[in-house]
Write a structure and sequence with these properties.
HTH_TetR; TetR/AcrR family transcriptional regulator; globular; DNA-binding; mainly alpha; Arc Repressor Mutant, subunit A; 227 residues; Homeodomain-like_sf
Length: 227
């Protein structure tokens, strides 16, 4: 790696870590380019040499704050016997962490980041490759996808390969579960829940399992009718 790349990586980390500190101390809504520059010990103009907009800084800092979730999801899915079991467990872990940190997960998975947001994820793991240590190979393709739809497709393809569901059923499950999660997260962000976060997680998982059970039963019924 050239000296210039090493220096650029070091500068990126200065600004990302300063942003993380602001988020942890003041909240994600309080992040500004000026605050990050002041905390990192540089002027605002310097930041724009590395980040085109504040949303990218917030994204990278939020990715760093996702590490406890990334580490834990591997522990969750190892308890699943089938690909659908692992898909459900992955959602359980995702709901647990995302509902407790809705702004962080919104910044990573929903916030508008402009063109080619996946390249930001690639850049993040170039800067922090240690975050991928101990992550199962079956999870890595999903982690490099920013799109919730593509992340779900990556995990559900294993269920298709195991012939638990068909391609069309995988698409249905993927779309319905993502819409369900986004709706619940939006309610949490807007303080529109009539119950606590534990109940929100419980209800979301109940609905996800109902969706999967309905689609799986329908698939098995259709297969039986064809045979």
């Amino acid at each position: 790696m050239s000296n210039r790349k090493i220096q650029m990586g070091r500068m990126w980390k200065y600004f990302i870590e300063a942003t993380v500190e602001i988020i942890e101390e003041e909240g994600i809504e309080q992040v500004t380019i000026r605050k990050v520059a002041d905390r990192a010990g540089y002027n605002s103009a310097t930041i724009y040499n590395y980040f085109s907009e504040a949303s990218h800084l917030i994204f990278f800092a939020s990715m760093k704050l996702l590490k406890p979730y990334i580490d834990d999801v591997a522990n969750y899915i190892k308890h699943g016997d089938t690909a659908l079991d692992k898909y459900i467990l992955a959602w359980e872990c995702f709901c647990k962490y995302s509902f407790k940190q809705p702004s962080i997960f919104h910044a990573v998975f929903i916030m508008d980041l402009g063109d080619q947001p996946e390249k930001l994820i690639e850049r993040y793991y170039e800067l922090y490759p240690a975050d991928l240590i101990h992550i199962p190979e079956e999870l890595k393709p999903a982690l490099f996808e920013r799109s919730m739809s593509k992340r779900g497709q990556s995990l559900l393809q294993n269920a298709v390969d195991e012939k638990l569901i068909g391609e069309e059923q995988a698409d249905d499950i993927n779309e319905m579960t993502n819409l369900l999660w986004q709706g619940m997260l939006t309610n949490i962000l807007n303080n529109r829940l009539d119950y606590n976060l534990e109940k929100a997680e419980q209800k979301t998982m109940e609905y996800i399992q109902k969706i999967i059970r309905y689609v799986s039963d329908k698939t098995q019924y259709n297969n039986a009718m064809r045979s």
